[in-house]
Fold each of these.
Amino acid sequence: MAIINLKINSKEYSIDVDPQMPLLWAIRDFVGLKGTKYGCGIAQCGACTVHLNGQPVRSCSLPVAAVANKNITTIEGLSDDNSHPVQKAWIEEQVPQCGYCQSGQIMAAAALLSKNASPNDADIDAAMQGHICRCGTYPRIKRAIKKASENKP
Amino acid sequence: MVSRRQFIKNTGKASFALWLGATSNGFANAAFITYAPSNFTPFVKIEKNGKITIFNTKPEMGQGTFQSVPALIAEELEVSLDAITIVQTSGEKQFGGGQAAGGSSSIRGNYDAYRKIGAAAKEMLIKAASVKWGIGIESCYAENGSVHSKLSKEHLSYGDLIEEASKLEVPKEPKLKNKSDFKIIGKSIQRPDVPLKVSGKAEYGIDVEVPNMVYATVFRSPVIGGTLKSFDADATLKIPGVIKVVEAKTTVGKYQYSGVAVIAKSYWSALQGRKVLKVEWETNGYENFNLSDYENKLRNLSKETGVLDKNIGNVESVKTEPGNSVESFYETPMVAHHTLEPMNCIAHVNGEMLTIWTSTQVPSAITGSGPNDLHSQIGMKPENITLHSKFIGGGFGRRLYTDYVIEAVNIAKQIEQPVKVIWSREDTTQHSAVRPMTFSQLKGGFSKEGELISFQHKVISPSYFDSVGPNFDKTKVDAIMIEGIGEQAYQIPNIKTSYVYADFHVPVAAWRSVTSSTVAFAHECFIDELAHKVKKDPLDFRLQMLDKDSDTKRVLLKLKEVSNWDKPLPKGKGRGVAQWEFFAGLCAHVVEVSVTKDNTIKIDKVYAVIDLGEVVNPDNVKNQIEGSIVMALTAAIKTGITIENGKIKQSNFHDNPMIRMHETPEIEVHILADGGKIKGVGEPGLPPFAPALANAIFSITGKRIKKMPFDLKLS
Ligand code: FES
Ligand code: FES
């Protein structure tokens, strides 16, 4: 066990955990933010995606000690009122079904658009390939990403 | 576990029946007097301040019932969806036994019943206003949460009327609105759960936290059917955070299993404890079970006559000339549900009392007092069970089983605190009931004139009913396993369908669209073979066998039009068609394919037509069909579940892959909602997809695909 300091959505948290524990469980069970999901635990599904210094990462496969004091953003930090362009587009396109994968999908899409303001189909496929939506909302996710890129100032 | 039959029956007219029952014994009126706020019926609550709550009894798992069920009530009650609060029910007694989602039944089974609930409440409010104003009810109308007078500018909000309305008799046969007056039904209104799912605020079972809660992971027998011999927890108990190691029993249909639960302060600690846990299993001979042997057994069983299902005309008496008949054999694999939210459940046993927090398709089966409901599996009184039913991160039939709930309760009985049991992805893949494989033997015979005069379909498979209950009668047909095959609308003078039971020790489950997701593949590919035999266009061949007023014919005609079927495709492209009607509904697809430079099939486009009779939210239906096609594509071309040395070989998404965005074809969905029988949404999009794809591939390669999964890479 060790004290780890985390910076999540610009707030600081100090938790006493196994340094090898994945960031995912720190976020969910120690910090208490439940928007980030567990789907596979082996970097295959993307449900656990958060931003680490702006980059999308799989929190299920990152030991918590490795991200101490770094800037982490979760779905809760994207906006507190669904006002992020990606969230708005997700609502306009009515993307979710069960919704379980969507936090991860949205975090990946937000990271993509911050690097590439107008991605084409191939860019979107490449950025989103690591994400599984068992409900099969891919056509809508793609449409929503395009919409968000158009809506951006 | 409720049997599928039972829950389909329960989800039929049960909700309305309950409401009527409540009326005749005065429940609704009594509720007005006893409680404030008051209930018109258990499904609608209107408070004096005007707040309107509609209770949704159909768990939301992505299919859209969180909106579609309240929408039916709100439409007739004359309130907008923005003006209501929706509360998900959790198996509470007053909402009856129909609190379950499955079989695509929520809307098709309750379309009028839910509307009558809203209409009855509205009639009572109108009556109350008319009495207040001293005018006739014909001079009043309801709009936007108020009753208005046609004679003056006067209006009263529902909240101001409930006291008077509550003293009135609840009308038994309230008048329903004309379709042309609908403001909600048939409109693509944004769903209320979407903002929650976009912000991360939607709470799934796995997200619930209760005070003082601990976590558990369960080590289960890697060999299916293995039993627990002993365990040594010494090393486990030394892991920081580990609290206790206990036996964890559960029930899946007729099967009983034991695992070992590691209970800890955090899930991570529990997992660390499980890594060093020593368990000995008795494998009971099942360690020698290999799927490939079992599949050979199924092939051999196809020689048996089996049990007769449908017998139209007399297939045996039909004499076909040599060369005028076709025979074929099709095989499908086992598949996993892979709900993205793994199984999980929180249980808290406090003396006689039990509280459960979980995502389930069957709240009624958890709190119910029926003989197969949860109480009977855990030895507790149904009235002592409280459920908190959460958003479901995928159901697909997996969460019709309550094995993960029973297991959590059995663990919770051995510790004071509430315990959250989380199944890892690997646990979920390797210890969940699977969709069984079905093998199909088909025969068709033509007259000299080239008319299809005989058709036989024999299904060889394990039995669903044998898996869910102890008393399956092997001399009878398992209706689930031959689902839909005897009910196709094709007019063929001699039809015989039959079933051959195969003994199996692995629990099997309903998987979205149940057996239709497998037998439709065999059936509709074979229809294509028959069309090819007599050199007919596969879509015209089907149309010619359909009665002019059959729903199937309407669907195929629409599909023909929207897919431009009659327009020849450019060279190098092909297309295939398939349809399927079964208990859940009716849908048909045309799939267009081409071959890429590296000799791989590319799916260029999928056209889908679904017939619903009536549609609540067209955009949501489209979402469902798009998703159904993606799911059906996974089942068609990705590895299924296999068993080697008694163990499920696949464990996670690296070896049991799912379709991803870059593999998803373009999809165009058309909805028929022109009246007629009301049909379901959640499942019908799956069965016709794999056969339409396989038929499309045949059209371009000339090779018949007779086994799922199949490779898009051509050899
Ligand atoms: S849970 Fe991390 S990628 Fe699946
Ligand atoms: S919406 Fe269900 S997994 Fe994506």
Amino acid sequence: MSKGVLVDIPKCIGCESCSVACKLWNELEWDPQEKTKTPTDRAKEPNNGLWPEEWTSINRYALKKNGTAVGRYVKTQCMHCEDPACVSACFSKAIQKLPQGPVIYDQKLCVGCRYCMMACPFDILRYEWKKSIPGVRKCQMCPTRVANNQETACTSVCPTGAITFGDRDELLAEAKKRIRSNGYVDRVFGEKEAGGTSWLYISDTPFEQMKFRTDVTTKSLPSYTEGYMKMTPFIGGAWATILAGLYVFNNKNKEPLE
Amino acid sequence: MASKAGQAKKLSRRSFLKFVGGASLVGVSLNLAGCGEPITAEKAVGGSGWMPAQYNAPGNWPTNVRGRVPIDPENPAIIRDDEKCILCGQCIEVCEKIQSVYGNYELPIKNEIVCVNCGQCTQWCPSGAITERDDTDKVFKALADPNITVVVQTAPSTRIGLGEEFGMPVGTNVQGKQVAALRKLGFDVVFDTNFTADLTIMEEGTELVKRVTGELKKPTPQLTSCCPGWVKFVEYFYPDLIPNLSSAKSPQQMEGTLMKTYYAEKKNVDPKKIFSVAIMPCTAKKFECQRPEMVSASKELKDSKVTPDVDVVLTTRELARMIKRAGINFAALPDDQYDQLMGSGTGAGAIFGTTGGVMEAAARSAYYLITGQQPPSALWDLTPVRGMQGVKEAAVNIPGVGSVKVAVISGLTNARLVMDQIRSGNAPWVFIEVMACPGGCEYGGGQPRASSPPSDDVRNRRAASLYKIDANAKLRNSHDNPQIKQVYADFLTAPMSKKAEELLHTNYISRAEEFVTKKSKSKLN
Ligand code: SF4
Ligand code: SF4
Ligand code: SF4
Ligand code: SF4
């Protein structure tokens, strides 16, 4: 059964327990500069507050609802697409989709080509530019927890039920129920977007006003990239040669190869 | 050495091969062959950290304590360092269960994160992640400016808390050392908030008598107004009971106002150059001094350059940090005296710092205000309102009036019970004291964190110290304070005179619009 998370935006109070849980569980570093940013600051950033060590971010949008000012907090992280573009972009199979839902990344297999970053329709992936052996970073949807019949770290700490872990099918039905009974916007973001995602969002304020990519295609992305991906063997081979050359060049003076 | 270097070279060569030659080409060929080895959950990055046990339950097992209290980055009283938070859930527990603030509004929230700034979460947070907003820099800056007269006041209960920061036993009275430390830090004038605690009794007591006699067309029971956390709680959740709140300002705000009017006039100091600091056991006081209506001196003097009545509030903990930063050997300081004019309080003023203290002080002076006679000694030891129970009741016999029923509450969840009773119209009390923090200010959100979690043991020891100050005081009734008599004779005329109303009383606003009232009694989700 494929798992998912339902994000009920109006239920979020912006406590940021979820992002602290993500840090704790994944042992992500605290950056003194990122730490001082507020959800309002992060909502204004082009990258939505996601960095190599920030796999999730709570962003606050100041909106108007029926003429009164309201604040809405949006949790951002990898959407865990049903048919992920990042996975098909990765020729070394370093990113894969687990049957339970999580789209995970094995750094040992990564060659650092960053095709996944270009392929992602939601601009989620981040590259560790500052590291000597950089990797690609993003939310993994706590695969070991999910495999152990535990919920994800972030959902386990949410005090309000704004984020709920469960079977994607059931969550989708629940989402539609809440849309009807709470008078939400009639759209489950993630039901069809990018061919469907494990994370689903519902809202009482327009998605467009909270930096959702509402124009994203509803077709699964790999079906588009197929032609492009057929080139992979060639590009991959060429890329490896270039990287090898660059590596030798860069390390020539520091560490001559034996 | 050499072998280590060689190893490093080998390693980097291996990783080079693995990362570029190996992985890439293997990956490419696997892709070509269309049969990549599926990676397992364990191979994913991350996932090797730690979470408190309550979050590691399988499936949808219900977890009672989840997450933490939301704190607005703009909160004037408290801040949180996310890096220190361990998601233990203590803050949300105290806010929801003890203070009944979190979870008492419908979702979605509107604009504001509902918080009464009481700071009890700072007391419960085991990792020190939640603290008061540090304002010491503003004070250091004012102290360094020779053109500014920095006037400071200290609340009744900072003197019995501060010592703990310097390793002294719980409840040690360090009044004299506190004054000495403030002088060493460079404060120009040191006043005692106990003076305006006495003044509050005169104003609030007079108001109560006027309500009871019908001279003032306002409802009873009268509710105390010296706790800004409690006042904000009423404004949020019981706006219909705002008329019951005494209009008297808190002692802090009275003292601040009088610094820039009475003191400035008597000592010929330019009120524009007075910087008024309050040392408080409380984080909510930081919110209170920023309330837009707390600018009575500026209004009275018709001078917009006069800054708010209280410029900065520092908690007991912040004062301790200042003393430590300045390298002052606190334990070795000789006792010093407050400056006079507004520097002495009675025993009644001192016990403001613990739950029941305001009521006991008020009972003594109400007796005098009604009968014109000194209260009997029974009112110097009003045991039913002492102690740590959340709701206490007493009946005070006043000749000519009869038995007057009063109640004393600490902790806001306890307050809800009584407020709901007032709403339903069957409240037998004429006067009710409420303090937001369990035990009152002595265990306020700004007091030193005891080495153990908040407990009645510590609260009782601190309270005992305050009652000892009262028992040993020469004067034990607010109306006997000579400086109180002087301020009325020289400046304010009489309690609730026009001038007293303008300077010492305030008004409140409903904050009910900030959220949607909770419909059911169930939890948020
Ligand atoms: S959101 Fe981006 S990174 Fe996440 S699974 Fe989809 S394509 Fe991959
Ligand atoms: S833990 Fe829940 S309520 Fe708190 S910020 Fe995250 S999603 Fe919102
Ligand atoms: S200050 Fe008081 S009301 Fe505000 S979050 Fe902390 S406990 Fe709750
Ligand atoms: S009490 Fe402190 S450590 Fe515990 S959840 Fe709250 S902020 Fe985090």
